[in-house]
Amino acid sequence: MVRSSEKRGFTKRRIFIILLGVLAFWWSCSNEADLIAHRSIGLAFPDWNIYYGSISIRPLGGAWVSDVLLVPIDGDKEESYHFDNVSVEIPIFQFFRSAWDFDLLERIPAVKEVTLRFEGGSGAMGWPFSPELSVFGTASASPFEAEGCAEDGSWNSDELPGMGLNAKPTRLTMAWQRKPDRIVKQQSIETPGVGRVDYRGELLVHDKKSLLSLEVGEEDELALSEWHVVDEGFVAARNKFCANKDGISTSEFTARHLASVQRILAAIGMQARETTIASYRHFVENGGNLDLVVNYSPTIDAGESEGADWSRWLARTQGQLSVQGRSTALSLRSIDEQPFPQNDEIKSTWDIVRIEQERRTTTMAASAADERVPTPTAATADVAAPNPGAANSPPVVETAAREEILYAETDVHEERPRIIDDYAKLRDEVGQRFMLYCKGKSRMRVEIVGVDKGEIKIRRYLRSGWLEQGIKQASFERAERIR
């Protein structure tokens, strides 16, 4: 017969063991929440500086992160983006399966789906949230948001009310799903009262790497990209704002916007055909919905996606552009690249277009004037000074005025090294273009634009145009010249 004192002791031990087990499980889940939060945000913003307040467990799987500040690569806190909180969502079974495995190598592969929901966003960051969203405003969610304006390059969330928009805090969503043969990536920017863009991409994979390993597969292939834009008043407000600011009509601003977008495409060797321009013009004039779905066949591998020849993308692209439900085939053609000039006084893409148009007009006027010079008559020919070599000289033919493009000037006669691994030598390469390799980062297609306090400044080419930044000597590996 068991005595009551022994029963009480057994009960206390059992309660203690259960309590110890609960504490151990809670400790494991807390560590898992911290690990998941770090790796998920690192997956979304590789090489960025991320600051946040606290991390806590999300009971349904994942973590809550408060007071998040995103600082771009080589940026500072003055040009950053702040979110009140981030919800890191993992399917509950995957989360607790991962949390209960003390082997890190086994824990990470258990997570096959991750969703980050950033809430309460605002900031003055000029850097895009991701390469896939590079042509969209970080608050407006509109493509090529400020192109066509004489002086504006982008707008932050604090500036939108000045356009007459009732802008709410921005929401950002990033999600990944690991399937047996592919990774599905989804992203969205939403600012209620302004607009929204959703992106979805499919990446074919040929290895077993997990989502949160933070490894980049060299054999990954891009198979599909699609963007869906919903305008909630930004387009009309932007058109009116820029037209009033620049003293022109909204129809004139629309023409400037389209010309600026074409110039951005020309900088990377592309030109939109008339059917595509007409569809996009309808969106620029009226807003509404815009959908672009692009399939790549053959797929775009990692080498092609980082390469300098965008025309090779075009040969593999089959796309559909839809505006307000009216669909047309995406029609682009490859042209010679027309790089942006190196000129600190240029304030916008429209500035470049305007100067080039003025040069074309001047050249055509000079050509027309030459054509109006009268041919010498026999009487006046007798007065002309003799030219003994005239009989053997070829006739002078005035060619038609050519388009004036503001290229970055280069000296074609000077032999320059193809590869530069000495950081200091980059200061002599202003105006030259390179494929730049830095430690821990993907290679970048850049132009050297100058030196500031000993630090090399580059202009980095994005799909939306260019972005200037500094490159620190400690991170520099080498630069390969683009011929």
Q: Tell me the structural class.
A: alpha+beta
The residue fraction in helices comes out at: 25-40%
Order of helices and strands: HEEEEHHEEEEEHHEHEHHEEEHHEEEEEE
* Biggest beta-sheet profile: 12 strands, antiparallel
Which residues form runs of ≥5 with pLDDT under 50? 376-413
Using the CA coordinates, give the radius of gyration.
Answer: 29 Å
Mean pLDDT: 80
Q: In oligomeric terms, what are we looking at?
A: single chain
Count of alpha and pi helical runs? 10
Q: Would you count the extended β strands for me? A: 20
**SS strand fraction:** 25-35%
Distance, first to last CA? 93 Å
Question: Could you outline the blueprint of secondary structure elements for this entry?
Answer:
Layout: H1 4-44, E1 49-51, E2 55-57, E3 62-71, E4 81-89, H2 92-99, H3 104-107, E5 113-123, E6 170-178, E7 182-191, E8 195-204, E9 221-231, H4 234-246, H5 250-267, E10 270-272, H6 274-286, E11 289-301, H7 302-305, H8 311-314, E12 317-323, E13 326-329, E14 332-334, H9 349-371, H10 378-383, E15 419-420, E16 433-438, E17 444-452, E18 455-462, E19 465-471, E20 476-481
Antiparallel strand pairs: 1-3, 2-3, 3-4, 4-5, 5-6, 6-7, 7-8, 8-9, 9-11, 10-14, 11-12, 12-13, 15-20, 16-17, 16-20, 17-18, 18-19
Helix pairs in contact: 1-2, 4-5, 5-6, 5-9
